[in-house]
Here is the input.
Amino acid sequence: MPLVPTGELVTRAAAARRAVAAFNVITLEHIEAVIAGAESAGSPVVLQVSENAVKFRYGRLLPLARAAVTAAERAAVPVGLHLDHVQSDDLLRQAPDAGFGSVMYDAARLPYADNLAATRAAADWAHAQGLWIEAELGQIGGKDGLPPLDAHAPGARTEPGRARDFVASTGVDALAVAIGSAHAMTRRTAVLDHALLERLSAALSVPLVLHGSSGVPDGALVAAVGGGIAKVNVGTALNAAMTGAIRDFLAARPEAVDSRAYLGVGREAMAREVRRIIGVLPTAGG
Here is the structure.
């Protein structure tokens, strides 16, 4: 079926107090696994390509984007395509022609005032192109003049009042909030601040996004969706599933050289993890 705009999937989920799962993809096997897992679960899904993934692909966006678009158009469930953690304005401007319906513009490394100005400019441009745009705060709850704090550093928290002002001033369509998760966690030990999430949900009228969801226990994910999270980002969990499956396969078959054999095993492991995560979440059906 045709690509479905990420904003449409997230808005629909938010209205139903549910969430759409968004998975970061790096290889064609990631793309195929995410779609297979979503089809198995009978749920919409978002494919995310991060700026880091583009750098890994020699700085070329189109090869992976074209693969994602082609696979999505042949999927049996609605699929959105999202450009994630974009810091480069040049990369941002490649999004529409590459098939993306949404972007996450990441100026959180900048002091608050600079983040606001850069994000406002990005949102104006994105909206003129018909793109849905997500952003996040960097200097979480800090005072002007302090160094920027990564939005997912330990202890980082999004302050509701500043978040409300940021959204109003930038015009973004969704906000990634810092409530205790962190990127690249390989153990599911994150402790979410559900009371803060409740305050953020009450303060903001845009959908809320949870980054670093690989490190969040299942029960906390369910509670986060109930508390207002409408988009759940997952990346590391897929890489862990793929790497673990390949490691076990090669340990048992040291003579193996055909990459199709171990990549196939890795792809299947990722698809199972996609289905598992979607099954945990209260999701808006297709």
